[in-house]
Amino acid sequence: MGRQQRAPASVAAKKGVHEVETTFERVAASGNWMSALESTIEGMGYELVDVERLPRGLLRISIDRVPGRVYPVESEFVTVDDCEGVTRQLQLVFEVESVDYERLEVSSPGLDRPLRKPHDWDRFCGLEVDVTFKMPFQGRRKYRGLLTQAQPQPRLIVKEGKTEQALDFALDEVREARLVPVVDFKGRARAARNGEQQT
Questions:
Q1: Residue-range definition of the domain harbouring residue 147
Q2: In sequence order, what are the residues at sequence separation of 6 or more whose Cβ sits closer than 8 angstroms to the Cβ of residue 112?
Q3: Which of 134, 32, 102, 111 shows the shortest CA–CA distance to 64?
Q4: Strands ordered across the beta sheet of 46-54
Q5: In a 3-state reduction of DSSP, which class is residue 36?
Q6: Residue pLDDT, tens place only, 87-105
Q7: Are the beta carbons of 102 and 58 closer than 8 angstroms?
Q8: Least buried of 45, 83, 122, 168, by fewest C-beta within 10 Å?
Q9: Does any domain span residue 146?
Q10: Pairing mode, if any, of strands 140-149 and 155-160?
């Protein structure tokens, strides 16, 4: 199984404002415009993956395609056309919601896509994941392993040399989780990040 390397799709647009970095959770707590953002993206048939406010007024939003849904342009990944369409719609929504920003960037989540929502763990079960825990376990917080189970709680199989150990944990113990980027330079990898198995 693997993920094909590709240039991330991204579209940037300009508007007007300031504000500094913040995490997805802090941005989400910032009010009604977040609800409008998420409902707009979902209404267009995409999933909101991440939102960041960065220096110089950059508002960066990453989206993903929903598995099983049909899109005008056939592709395993988010395309530039997807990003352009979402950008145009968000500019209108942000004008109505009076969202303050200087530049808007809509992009694909990249090869190291974050796992933020419970259904992400189901979708990417069977892939390698980097997990950072809030509290240390056996003297460390960061683990890389194969996600072999998502329900009733995630299970990570971690290899240390010749030994393997299974880590079972609750989602509220996780500070951050991301897919491990997999690059196939021969171009034969399937889009495992979309939940497909390589054959």
A1: 118-184
A2: 130, 178, 179, 180, 181
A3: 111
A4: 10-16, 101-107, 58-65, 46-54
A5: helix
A6: 999 999 999 888 889 999 9
A7: yes
A8: 168
A9: yes
A10: antiparallel
